[in-house]
Amino acid sequence: MTLLERDLQAPQAWRGNLPVTSRYTFGLAGERFFRALKDKGRIMGTHCPHCDRTYVPAAAFCERCLSELTSWVDVGLEGELLTFTLLFADSDGQPMEHPELVGLVAFGDGGLIHKLDVDLDVLEIGMTLKAVLKPKAQRTGSILDILHFAP
Amino acid sequence: MTSRIKHFPGTSLSEKDFAEGKVLFVHDQLKAEFAWDTGIGIGAYLASLKRGVILGAYCGHCRKTVVPPRTVCEWCFRPMSEYAPLKDTGTVNTFSLCYVTWDVQRIKEPEIPAVIMLDGASTLGPASVVMGGIMHKLGEVDPKEAKIGMRVQAVWKPEAEREGAITDILYFKPLIEKEA
Predict the structure, then answer these.
(1) Which of A111, A139, B89, B110 could be a cystine partner for B97, CB 3.0 to 4.6 Å?
(2) Cis peptide before A57 (omega within 30 of 0)
(3) How far apart are CA B62 and CA B24, in angstroms?
(4) Closest by alpha carbon to A47, among A76, A78, A74, A69?
(5) On the CB side of A135, how many CA atoms lie within 13 Å of its CA?
(6) CA dist., res. B69 & res. B48, Å (int)
(7) Beta bridge partners of B65
(8) Contact A9/B26, CB-based, under 8 Å?
């Protein structure tokens, strides 16, 4: 029990906004991966000869044996759909008018998570999907240089 | 760099490398909005600032006045007895000459953050714990003239512009007291 009374004109809450900005660089392997996507329209991976694994997106080091990866491979634009999900809420948790289809498309021993442009009638795990890229002039060196994956 | 390490491994980047597109990057801005519940004490404090009054709270048992007001006494844990409107004059307890702003920009004229012991608030708590002071800025003062112990007075925003915030006080300026 307090003896001090609430001031009826007092604000309920102090509101603010933290001005937090960030600038993310992709690292040595990431830089080369996105350069290849931007300039050549290619999806690149790195191969570890010791473990016989191909990392996509490209990695600088093998996560199994920790050796440096110097062998770069073009894994093409077509991959197998490993899994998918239908999103009804956006990244802020707000309901979306049109649900969005996203999936994991396998390349090498890795894969890319991206939007899918596939009819739900024909959608199935294991189908082959191809990356649809932005026109070269519009590419910025981001994962969004791939518009989506389609059959 | 340190005295022992002259060069760190890795790829150093300059602002120029980003501007010239030598390196790819993603810019992001977090949506970091917050609402902090003012509670009874701070709510009354902010509402009073809008009215041009610095509000404290008085504990009748300990006979101490704290600012900003708390609902519970920090020494005896009893409820505070009453609000205590304070004068907007006080004494500089400590200050700093700050040549860097909060977002790390260099400035020529220093800001002078200071702890100001307000007249009417208690000065010392148990074991010489300093109390009864608020953190604010000094203004209208030559940085060379700032002194611990100098008398100061609040300079308020015009009443129409006040919004119930500590910034309703623009700064504290030196107080020239008339000899009685």
Answers:
(1) B110
(2) yes
(3) 63
(4) A69
(5) 2
(6) 11
(7) B58
(8) no
Task: Give the minimum alpha-carbon distance from B138 to chain A in angstroms, rounded to a whole number.
Answer: 24
| pLDDT score at B3 | 80
Q: What is the pLDDT of residue A2?
A: 62
Describe the strand order of the beta sheet including B54-59 as a list of residue ranges: B64-66, B54-59, B82-86
Residue A38: which of A146, A150, A148, A149 has the closest Cα? A146
**Angle at CA B130, nearest 5°, toward B129 and B136?**
150
The ipTM, to two decimals, is 0.75
**Dihedral Cα A29, A32, A38, A43, nearest 10 deg:** -60
The distance from CA A41 to its chain's CA centroid, rounded to whole angstroms, is: 16
Given the structure tokens 């809008």, which residue do they identify?
B50
Q: Do A3 and B46 touch (CB under 8 A)?
A: no
- Number of Cβ within 10 Å of residue A81's Cβ equals 21
To the nearest whole Å, the CA of B142 is away from the closest chain A CA by: 32
Per-residue HEC secondary structure of B116-133 comes to: EEECCCCCECHHHCECCE
Rounded Cα distance between A24 and A136, Å, is: 23
Question: Do residues A54 and B54 lie in contact, with contact meaning Cβ atoms separated by under 8 Å?
Answer: no
CA distances in angstroms from B174 to B59, B167, B169, B178, listed in the order given? 30, 18, 14, 13
Which residues in chain A are contacts of B38 at CB distance < 8 A? 10-14
Check pLDDT > 70 for residue B125.
Answer: no
pLDDT for residue B127 is more than 70: no
Residue with tokens 């009864």: B132
Q: State the pLDDT at residue A3.
A: 80
CA A149-B27-B9 angle, to 5 degrees, is: 105
Listing DSSP states for A40-84 in one string gives: I---EEEEETTTTEEESS--SB-TTT-PBP-EEEE--SEEEEEEE
